[in-house]
Design brief:
This protein is α+β, with helices and mostly antiparallel strands and 361 residues long. It is built from 14 helices and 13 strands. 41% of the residues lie in helices and 27% in strands.
C-alpha cells in the first residue's frame, strides 16, 4: 500500500474525508489484518491512479466483503475514483468475487450509490438498504450568532450552570492539543484512561480493552501526527482530564473520531460541555465545520444544523451461501428502516436528478 500513498492522497482530495485517506487505511492494514483479509483493488490508466477500492474480506462463518474496518470502526466507507468508468470497473470486479458485500453509509446522491443500484438491479442481486443521516455543523456565521440561533436560551443557561459546577471543584480548562511525536503517547494514554472511566469499560468496548480498536487508533494517531492533522481536545479540572475527543483536522473541518468522559463528573455533563467547546473552537478558528461521524445520536442535534444523507447496503449474490447470509442478516437486524431494494429504488428513481446536488455537502 505504501507505494500508492502520494497518488492516493491526490485522489482523496476529491472526497475530502479522513476515513478515505491513505493514513486511515495504512492504520487498518497494519492493525486489522487479521481478522480482515485485505484485497486492494486498484485501477490505473496511462500510468495514473484513477481508482482504489480498499476492500477487506471479513473472516467469520460466512465471509463478506466490506471497505476495510467499517464494521469495527463504524464510520462511512466507500471507493475512491476520478471518473465514472473507474468506479464502474471496480464495482464490477467486486461483484464478480461472488461474495456478500457490506457498504456502510454511501452518500445518497453520489455516483457510487447510483452505480451500485444500477448493478444490483441489472444483475438481479438481493439487497437490504438502510437510510441513515450523518449530522454535522456547518460554519456560516460567527459563534455568537450561531449560538443564539441554534441553541435555545434555556439550553445556554444549562451550559453555564454545568460549567459553574465544574469550576466549583477547581480550575476549569478547555485544551486543544496538536500533538508531537514526543508527547503523543502521553496524550493518548490520558485519552484512553478517560474513555475507560464510564460505561465503555463495563461493556469492554473501550480502546484500552479492545486490542484491535486501540491498536488502530494508536497507529492512525501516529500517522495523523506525521501529516499534522491530529487534534486532541480535553476538558480538565485541576489538570485532571474529565472529557476527551480524538479528532482530525481534514479539509478545513474537524472530524470527531472518538469521544470519552469520566462518569464520576456526571453532574456537570463533561462530554456535552467539551462538545460545545469544540464546536466553538471551529467557529473561532475559521474552520468550515465539524463532522460528528459515528452514529446519529439525539444529543448531537443540539448543535447540528446540517446532515448528510446516506445508504447502507447489504448485497447478496444469488448463490445458496448468499441466500443463507441474507436470512441470517434478516434475523439479526432490528430497529431502523430496512427496505427491500426493489421498493426502495423504485420509490426514489426520480429523486436523484431533482435533489442530488443539494444533498451532497
Amino acid at each position: 500500500m505504501d507505494f500508492l500513498i502520494d497518488r492516493w492522497t491526490e485522489l482523496e482530495k476529491r472526497f475530502g474525508s479522513p476515513v478515505m485517506s491513505p493514513e486511515w487505511f495504512r492504520a487498518g492494514a497494519a492493525t486489522l489484518c487479521p481478522p480482515y483479509d485485505l484485497k486492494l483493488a486498484v485501477r490505473e490508466k496511462d500510468g495514473a491512479l484513477d481508482g482504489v477500492a480498499p476492500i477487506g474480506r471479513l473472516k467469520h462463518f460466512m465471509s463478506r466483503l466490506e471497505v476495510l474496518g467499517t464494521t469495527l470502526l463504524t464510520e462511512e466507507g466507500g471507493f475512491l475514483y476520478s471518473n465514472t468508468d473507474a468506479l464502474m470497473e471496480m464495482v464490477e470486479a467486486i461483484i464478480q468475487l461472488d461474495k456478500p458485500v457490506f457498504l456502510r453509509r454511501v452518500r445518497m446522491y453520489s455516483e457510487e450509490a447510483k452505480i451500485w443500484e444500477k448493478e444490483i438491479c441489472a444483475r438481479g442481486l438481493r439487497c437490504l438498504v438502510r437510510e441513515e443521516r450523518l449530522p454535522w455543523v456547518a460554519v456560516r456565521s460567527d459563534w455568537k450568532s450561531f449560538e443564539k440561533q441554534q441553541i435555545s436560551s434555556s439550553r445556554r443557561s444549562i451550559f453555564r450552570r454545568l460549567q459553574r459546577l465544574a469550576e466549583q471543584k477547581g480550575e476549569f480548562k478547555f485544551e486543544a492539543v496538536v500533538p508531537t511525536f514526543e508527547n503523543l503517547d502521553q496524550y493518548l494514554d490520558e485519552a484512553f484512561e478517560v474513555e475507560v472511566s464510564n460505561w465503555k469499560a463495563r461493556r469492554r468496548t473501550a480502546m484500552k480493552y479492545n486490542e484491535r480498536l486501540g491498536g488502530f487508533f494508536r497507529e492512525y494517531a501516529r500517522l495523523a501526527t506525521e501529516s499534522g492533522e491530529l487534534r486532541l481536545f480535553f476538558l480538565r479540572v485541576n489538570e485532571e482530564p474529565i472529557a476527551v475527543e480524538l479528532t482530525t483536522l481534514h479539509g478545513n473541518r474537524i472530524w470527531i473520531l472518538k469521544i470519552g468522559h469520566n462518569e464520576a463528573w456526571w453532574r456537570c455533563s463533561p462530554g456535552i460541555l467539551l462538545m460545545h467547546n469544540v464546536i466553538r473552537f471551529c467557529f473561532e478558528n475559521g474552520l468550515e465545520g465539524c463532522e460528528f461521524g459515528g452514529t446519529d445520536e439525539p444529543w448531537l442535534h443540539i448543535w447540528a444544523n446540517e446532515s448528510h444523507s446516506a445508504w447502507t447496503y447489504r448485497i447478496y449474490p444469488g448463490s445458496v451461501k448468499g441466500m443463507f447470509q441474507l436470512g441470517v442478516d434478516l434475523l439479526q437486524l432490528t430497529g431502523g428502516k430496512i427496505h427491500t431494494v426493489a421498493a426502495t429504488l423504485k420509490a426514489r428513481k426520480n429523486s436523484h436528478n431533482e435533489t442530488g446536488q443539494a444533498q451532497n455537502n
